[in-house]
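User: I'm putting together notes for a lab meeting next week and I want to include a structural view of one of the chains we've been expressing. I don't have a solved structure, so I'd like a prediction I can at least talk through. The sequence is below, exactly as it appears in our construct file.
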Amino acid sequence: MPANEPTWTTERIELLKIHFSAGLSCREIAGEIGVSRNAVIGKLSRLNLTREKKPEIRRASSKTNRPRSVPRLQYRILRKLFAEPVPAEDGEAIHSERHCSLLELSEERCRWPINSPGEEDFCFCGNRPLGGLPYCAGHSRLAYQASSRQRVARG
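Assistant: Thanks for the context. Below is the predicted structure for the 155-residue chain, given as structure tokens.
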């Protein structure tokens, strides 16, 4: 096409409208009439030609069948834990007869470290953890302490 000829001739505009109403994509229209995709988008915009947006299809069952997220479940467990009155022995040391090494840790054992890593008697608590949390009830109370603001609001 010569440099002095306009990009959008009457014929091209008619072809643009025909292809657009036929449902061709901007890339397909550009290929058919010999202009760039951006030129097609710009001209459609200047002509105020738009397509209706396709309605978003929502699946009603997707939310109902989805399991609760892990953080939400953990939050509910912790709320319940802190809502219960603190037993007197919770102020004392947490005893465990199930101490375990790093290699013995699993989801069925409390992961609270006892002593400092590298020391000869370093191990993990090993008691049965609360469902969905890495620690037993006693260590969960230590790990997830309510903030002072929450304590004042309850009191």
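A couple of points you could mention at the meeting. Residues 72-83+95-154 form one domain. The longest helix spans residues 70-83.

User: Perfect, that's what I needed.
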